[in-house]
Design brief:
One of its GO terms (cellular component) is cytoplasm. It is an enzyme of class 2 (transferase). Strands 1, 2, 3, 4, 17, 18, 19 and 20 form an eight-stranded mixed sheet that branches. The protein has an eight-stranded mixed sheet with strand order 10-11-12-13-14-5-15-16, with helices on both faces. The radius of gyration is 29 Å and the shape is globular. The chain contains 22 helices and 20 strands. Strand 11 and strand 12 form a beta hairpin. By secondary structure, it is an alpha+beta fold. Helices cover about 35% and strands about 20% of the residues.
């Protein structure tokens, strides 16, 4: 079909160009129609193809066009745009937003902000905060029983016998292991090689006396670099090259130790230790004036520690948040791009928080989901039309004392900040990073509305009332839901009682009835009953984004079946308007209207026209005439 168009298209159209959607100098939107998509559902966990949506692949998209698509119920996953077919899909998904300047924080949200402030000020009791966040698999009653049992007393007595020095070497070993794992996940070490666990040992006084002058401050040491080098060489069967010195060999213990020491130096310094590499060893030093019979007392540890608490041991001792020391929190906004440090954090988050299999968390899937973007960036204009950062896709980094602890993936558009995904360091779960980042993003919108008056809203993605783990989004008050039929915004307080009865509701009907403007039925006859677990704990999925199954375009089947009503949110006016003449078509580098294409080539192309009718209904008349519908 497309080849036929190329052959028969007159030369004046082949070389024609269109500036219709280029007038604002923000580029153009080019999409390919993927049609109706059916797949299994990550929300209700249906294994059948019950999730129904319309998909577009965006080769490029302007921030203005994407803003309008959001306001018609669309979202993006990388470059894939999708819109649920609300009457057909198993879990109707309503776009939810909040006017930032009207935001009223709840008591819990205020507590999150205060907790972070105390943490930064150094006044938060980190140990107490961590102990309140037990392993999710251990119930409160079980913890209470354990505390009164002889087993726990026995464990506590054994822990009392451990010296503080033992705890420090355990903690330092964990930190070295974490850094090795980060390097392996980011590709600096072969990920296919099972690397040994690090062991940091205390250096005895006798050995210190044998060392050269100035080395009396040496406290701990590890030879893990030698073990890593040997393991990698053995696994890869690397033969010794007589012409290559040990110093030049990238797998030599010396090079590995130097790299690890450089990466760990920030962590060690914050706890009064210095770290240096010496001939392949990783050595930890402290000032000579600090060395005494109580030389380990600068790292505090409670006298008792249960088996459950051992799981959080590294967090309580983490040198990035010793109680009493003021910390530096930085929030950095950068354009979306691949960052190995961010990927390592994302991988750790997915594996530890969402229990993803390590081999399923690949760099390719990460790039496709959270780095790749079709949005055409808009640079600052120096006036009130664009905020100082510009428009486009961004990563917002949260950095504490130089350590990356969370990354928010967001789109900044003419009317809103759209929150897409957040991933964070599991060691900092006690700070509720999902809630905190949402509060920061809301605050960012309020601050930037002064500079760019059109930027007023915070979009939280989809709200799915039939999925209890998505309901926490309504806690950001006062929020609004998008009517799936007329694309009017309806206060959540109005929508909630309707959604309690039916999962799919034409929300604007109720508003019109209240105003005496319509006698249409409140809800569609084709509905499904609400199913959900009311006991879902928001903190266990402390992320202001859609379900993690959104990460990549799901395995799905295309469906061109257009039987019945095409309920993609079209209004009755759009359904009746079957005129396809002004749809903008992209073909072989040209831009032309469909009416011009028909004049040049008038076959019986009912299939294409059927596609174009559906496309016009799901994107709307205005966007169908502005966005380029690519035929190749």
């Amino acid at each position: 079909m497309q080849a036929g168009y190329r052959k028969l298209l007159p030369r004046r159209f082949i070389h024609a160009t269109s500036s219709d959607n280029n007038d604002n100098n923000r580029g153009e939107t080019v999409v390919s129609d993927c049609g109706r998509r059916k797949s299994s559902c990550g929300y209700c966990k249906s294994t059948a193809s019950t999730s129904v949506s319309h998909g577009l692949w965006a080769h490029s998209i302007t921030v203005d066009d994407y803003q309008e698509l959001l306001d018609r119920g669309w979202r993006r996953s990388g470059s894939f745009l999708y819109k649920p077919e609300m009457e057909k899909t198993c879990c109707p998904s309503y776009t939810i937003r909040l006017r930032a300047r009207d935001f009223v924080p709840s008591k819990e949200q205020q507590r999150v902000s205060k907790r972070m402030q105390r943490f930064v000020d150094g006044t938060l009791d980190v140990k107490k905060s961590v102990e309140t966040r037990k392993d999710p698999g251990v119930s409160a009653s079980a913890c209470g029983e354990a505390s009164s049992s002889g087993t726990k007393k026995s464990l506590s007595n054994k822990n009392k016998e451990k010296t503080v020095g033992d705890h420090i070497t355990y903690y330092l070993s964990e930190q070295v292991d974490n850094m090795i794992r980060t390097w392996s996940e980011s590709g600096q070490f072969p990920c296919s090689v099972q690397l040994p666990k690090a062991s940091v040992k205390k250096v005895s006084q006798a050995k210190r006396k044998l060392l050269v002058e100035g080395a009396e401050d040496l406290m701990y040491s590890s030879n893990i670099a030698f073990q890593i080098a040997a393991t990698i060489r053995q696994a890869q069967s690397i033969a010794k090259d007589a012409s290559q010195s040990a110093e030049d060999n990238p797998l030599s213990p010396k090079i590995i130790a130097e790299k690890l020491a450089a990466s760990l130096d920030q962590l060690a310094n914050t706890n009064g230790l210095a770290i240096r590499a010496c001939n392949g060893h990783i050595n930890f030093y402290t000032a000579a004036t600090q060395v005494s019979s109580n030389e380990d007392s600068h790292i505090a540890l409670g006298a008792q520690e249960s088996a459950t608490e051992r799981k959080d041991f590294s967090l309580r001792l983490s040198p990035v948040h010793p109680q009493g020391k003021r910390r530096r929190l930085e929030i950095r906004l950068k354009r979306s791009s691949f960052d190995p440090e961010e990927f390592a954090l994302y991988r750790r988050y997915q594996i530890k928080v969402h229990n993803d299999a390590p081999d399923h968390v690949s760099e390719i899937s990460y790039r496709r989901f959270l780095v790749d973007t079709p949005l055409v960036p808009v640079q600052p204009s120096g006036d009130s039309r664009v905020p100082p950062c510009g428009f486009g896709s961004f990563h917002q980094q949260y950095v504490i004392d130089g350590r990356l602890v969370a990354v928010g993936v967001i789109d900044i558009l003419p009317k809103c900040l759209s929150s897409k995904y957040l991933f964070w360091d599991p060691d900092f779960a006690f700070l509720s990073p999902g809630k905190y980042s949402a509060l920061q993003e809301i605050g960012w919108v309020k601050e930037n509305e002064v500079r760019c008056p059109s930027l007023q809203y915070y979009y939280l993605g989809y709200y799915i009332h039939s999925c209890s783990k998505m309901r926490y989004k309504a806690a950001y008050y006062p929020s609004e839901l998008l009517c799936p039929l007329r694309y009017q915004w309806v206060p959540f307080d109005v929508a909630q009682p309707l959604l309690d009865r039916k999962p799919y509701v034409v929300l604007s009907d109720f508003v019109l009835l209240q105003n005496g403007e319509s006698s249409q039925p409140l809800v569609s006859e084709n509905v499904m009953e609400v199913q959900g677990d009311e006991n879902y704990d928001e903190d266990s999925n402390d992320v202001l984004v859609d379900d993690e199954d959104e990460m990549t375009e799901p395995e799905s089947e295309s469906s061109d079946d257009d039987s019945g009503s095409d309920s993609c949110g079209q209004t009755s006016v759009e359904i009746e308007n079957g005129n396809l003449s002004d749809i903008l078509i992209g073909l072989n580098g040209s831009r032309l209207r469909y009416k011009d294409l028909r004049r040049a080539f008038v076959p019986e192309e009912s299939y294409l026209e059927s596609q174009l009718h559906r496309y016009k209904r799901v994107v709307g008349e205005k966007l169908s005439e502005r966005m380029v519908y690519s035929l190749g």
